[in-house]
Fold each of these.
Amino acid sequence: MIVCTTKQQLKEQLALYKEGFPGSRVGLVPTMGFLHEGHASLMKRAKEECDFTVLSVFVNPLQFGPNEDFDRYPRDKQRDAALAENNGIDVLFMPDVSEMYPTKPLTRVLLSEVTERLCGASRPGHFDGVGTVVSKLFHLIQPDRAYFGMKDAQQVAVVERMVSDLDFSVEIIRCPTLRESDGLAMSSRNVFLNEEERRQAIILNSALEQAEQWAKEPGMTAPLFKERLSSYIGQAPLADIDYAELLHYPDLTDLPDDMELAASTQPLIIAIAVRFGDTRLIDNRIVEQKWRCAPHV
Amino acid sequence: MIVCTTKQQLKEQLALYKEGFPGSRVGLVPTMGFLHEGHASLMKRAKEECDFTVLSVFVNPLQFGPNEDFDRYPRDKQRDAALAENNGIDVLFMPDVSEMYPTKPLTRVLLSEVTERLCGASRPGHFDGVGTVVSKLFHLIQPDRAYFGMKDAQQVAVVERMVSDLDFSVEIIRCPTLRESDGLAMSSRNVFLNEEERRQAIILNSALEQAEQWAKEPGMTAPLFKERLSSYIGQAPLADIDYAELLHYPDLTDLPDDMELAASTQPLIIAIAVRFGDTRLIDNRIVEQKWRCAPHV
């Protein structure tokens, strides 16, 4: 595995590879590091489907608000590098902030509508930062495929829409959320939970499991569904709900209040964000048409 | 010359070419059509410097304001195609609006600061549309070099900054403004001028010629310079000044009011926009450090 900390090194490695193996498929796994099994599953999939794999590890300041956890976001470059190498990554791109943003960035890639709900509403500017840094990575690496985890389902929706709107020539691969044995979605932020918070955090996954069943009930509408979802999560005394939502996916538009959920012809997302102490966790389920739940996605 | 009206045709042609001639250099000349000798000079330069040349002709609705001249902007696809072929263009990309924007575009590439003066101030949203469509063309064509005319000097500054901020792997080539024999900068919009407007429109170039001299005068400051520039243009009775500015280039920031122009260590731009009837014309000169005027740029 070759580790690149500068754009120039990265470009040289990619040029060498592309010259030596024209027509081969490049896969990108963009991450913020502090890698866990969820990231490993993206790397494995990229490795299976591509001839050459690039992992990027970059905690992007542009996607953190002024009162968010950029400074305390967990980092462990050595462990990340070892895990990347174990997963057969060809190039690890690990720039620092001044390498990615050598001058004040005046350019932003902004999306409307699909960024206005869920985490986009709770974290103003977050998806502008995501769109901008993902554009930069796509330009630097020019991957044929890029792998994103569905734990961040809105991020997937935003990146897919950006790719389509701006005619990027990359295929976005949706990868299933990985979970701990008790169902908690894997996240780099889980390390911040204390013992009691960690115990109660399983309410996210159990709420989603229940909610998948409620969605099938005759006469169930979005307002009733969301009320029941919030009540269920409220059973965990430490849970401070940011949102508990039901929307169309990937458009992230509202359902009509009086529409029976079973009548929806589009996939839906059940999406929740809950704070435990200082730690904000998110999780979701995509419910496909005809109430076939997408397995693990 | 191959004419492509869809993105799919364009991608197929480019893929065929890149497969057959790996490592060869692709040049792009992005235009809004109604081609004149200025465009021809871009095509010639691209042809000299690149192995494969793409001309795009697309009147981009995103860069026109609601009260601007999108509908009446001059178009002549047949003449454009003939001129492109005469200039040795390999692929002419000529999509219609529904091909470029098949769904409502939710994504915008926005720039701050460098878009806030000159035409960015007079035409709100204009450069958002430029950044967005140029990003799309860069993604579709993946050129090694892209050729832009310095008549639109702010557009060049915006595109250069976007390329640098977003790590696009394309080199932007600044090409000199071409002029009619009496000095009027060539523009597709010149056809809208009536006889008297056309006669008076030469005031733009003569003002810039004078202004280059004023800039060398000892003690000359920006406020005095701009006042003199506006007065000079005001000699043409039909001239309705939108702006007559002096700024740093390419940052488009103000000079200190009390600074002698000769003390500037950065290149400056003298930029003017003037309406004659319904037709808005722009022109500029870049004045390099030490008052060496950039020849024709």
Amino acid sequence: MTYPATRELAKRIAAVHAPDVGEAARAGARNAALDTLGVILAGRGDACARLARRLAVSEGGAPVARLIGAEERTSASWAAFVNGTAGHALDYDDVDFVMLGHPSVTLVPALIALAEERGIGGAKVLEAYTLGFELLHVLGRAVNPRHYRRGFHATATLGSVGVAGACAYLLGLNEEQTMNALSLGASGSAGLVSNFGTMTKPFHAGQSARAGLVAAKLAEEGFTAAEDTLETGFTAAMAAEEIGPTAHEFADWESAVAPWGQPWDIEEGVCVKIHPCCAMTHPGIDAMLDLVTSEDVRVDDVAALGARASTMTLKVLRYKEATTGLEGKFSMPFCIASALVDRKVGIRQFEEDSVARPEIAALQKRVAFELDEKMAREDPETEAAEVWIKLKDGRELTRFFARARGHVENPLTELELREKFLECAASLTEEKALAAWDAWWRLDAAEDVAFLTAMLAVSVREPSPA
Amino acid sequence: MTYPATRELAKRIAAVHAPDVGEAARAGARNAALDTLGVILAGRGDACARLARRLAVSEGGAPVARLIGAEERTSASWAAFVNGTAGHALDYDDVDFVMLGHPSVTLVPALIALAEERGIGGAKVLEAYTLGFELLHVLGRAVNPRHYRRGFHATATLGSVGVAGACAYLLGLNEEQTMNALSLGASGSAGLVSNFGTMTKPFHAGQSARAGLVAAKLAEEGFTAAEDTLETGFTAAMAAEEIGPTAHEFADWESAVAPWGQPWDIEEGVCVKIHPCCAMTHPGIDAMLDLVTSEDVRVDDVAALGARASTMTLKVLRYKEATTGLEGKFSMPFCIASALVDRKVGIRQFEEDSVARPEIAALQKRVAFELDEKMAREDPETEAAEVWIKLKDGRELTRFFARARGHVENPLTELELREKFLECAASLTEEKALAAWDAWWRLDAAEDVAFLTAMLAVSVREPSPA
């Protein structure tokens, strides 16, 4: 390919016109936007979302973009931050195994806020989302899995660059400005996996939504940044050891960029979550749910139980047992125990009184969570998992899931997507939630995003955090 | 030491009381604050500072903290961002060779803005600065030089954590909150050396001032983050290869924390710049200035010239020749050429019409800038430089500077500091500038920081950027 890669990507983004984004990509982008808006509504009452909103309200700002699920409007960058944080609060938003992170919870809050501020219609939002998703895949192919192994949360790091590129398109920036936005976004990228299981994980989504949006706005005004940042500084810092003119050799940018737009990667869809917890727990949860329901296993019948997974899964799921809901989202033993006891791992299971049940506390200690040597040899990063139960009657049952329900290889139906949205939008009346679903489903034709976000305002005041 | 190191540092910060910070530390912090305020005033008209201000004004915010050198006030986090960016615009702010970056341009804007918002007096600002500087040294000892070699701009990355800790002290946070602020600040840290020579380098300072301040404010409200982030995720991502429970072994936190407060590192002072360009150019500039003035060398007498330096200096100074002032700040040939032609390397030399002079364009092409093998073997990171000139009469002259003027080992006098401040504060009348110097010099006794920042307002409207 032509170097610098950063400029090449900017050129491609700036060259896109509406007809280049076909129906399949628009549908994928719309589904992702709807799922994200649902989980923002569901997460808005979470403590980290309330604290992010309080900070934004106290800092103040021109009231041009709505805090989803709230009466207030604020500036675009604060709205992107608050909505991004709320959307990731429950770890219920979609996930992607090329970027190794969460694509929509960074792209959607930033694009919606910016479209609202500038009066940009829904069609362009869907195009921008399509490009942002494509860009996240290029970045993921270039730097993963080394980037993730190093301890970076790609939602924040790659997200910041992806949002910068998507917002650059939404603003109609030229190649030079887009290049500056990408490079500036790369300098604003951060986030550490060690903060998983705390409020700082959702903060990463908000931070990256905001950083990318700010990068694009500054680039629009004429702010400058280097034309080779992605393949030199960014690659070296995030996935290699050295910097300098030959640093592009540390990442295969040629292969990373080659599939650009042929077809758009979002046409395959994105991995939607049906459990509000780390994606690495999902195959284990689905396997356990399948096992306990198909075999009708009762807790009292169980003599021993456990799960086996690959290297990355064991690293990311750092909590052997969970004492809070946030920790539970990154604990395979907790998720397996909840699946066995409740036969469901939904929003309710991660609420504090649910986590505190003695039955759950006792059972999660009994879950053996171990490395599967064969899986680790074949693919250290795979999220596949096998669960097993030894029954008191001597029988031993196992189930293996390579891909969770909702994965692009195992997608949800439109009806299942809508059911999840309605569950997430419980703070709206059912009538309002259905009307919002229908209106947002026609996003491609919407001239006014502000009208759509107004449908997601919630007039109930929640208590302030303790 | 006791692990987690993150919690140990939080404990130390939360345990500090005013009497623990003595006169020497307060004087060091005051000098650093004054130098920083001066360079913010000098940089406020620079294009990147104007663009940052425009974005902040358009986003809006509660008017509680002043944009230095401007009429407007805005929210604390936007003020920290704008003032941080302005302060680093000219690369004229102080520098530190333990953090391998710029300490005051992140700490001072954040602390001043937050003190203004909360009505906190000057004495506490000086204490918070002292702790922030100490913390930056701990971080620098733990992760450098690998961190810098990897392509990170420590001003942004370590700065974000340093500011979080300093702001946590200013807000009077307890140990738990301070730990959360440090860990959250680490997740908000980024910045890439590849963006040197563009507006995005000053952006790093503003970004880190803002990120650290936001981290401390969220921690104050109860936001959570992991208690081991600095020695696991942060260390692994920034300076080592793996994550996991043993990752603290990749950095010697014991030695990094040991010198904490014995005495405070700021008591030795900080490296103040007398040239507004990358610190790695300074020994070369000082050597060339010394050579041309002591030997009275004229441009026409020169047959050939050059400079020799160590590995890191050659990497950081990435421009062989400069076509803009920003590139000139990271070009040894440009700086050497300016020193020879003008016998001064000040603000004026980096202005566009000055850079565009044919004499400078021609001369910088003639400067040989090469690796000194001996220096590289002994210390790859040293900023030391040797310059040489071959005269047409056959004589060959050389000068070696290990430490630039203004370095802590070669410090400026109070009078020299004040001269630099007055040069930087040219947008104020001389009377107002002197009054501001005197008032800020007594910062330790000031009950009202807002009164002091008001003295730095400038009522002249500048033209909007082209």
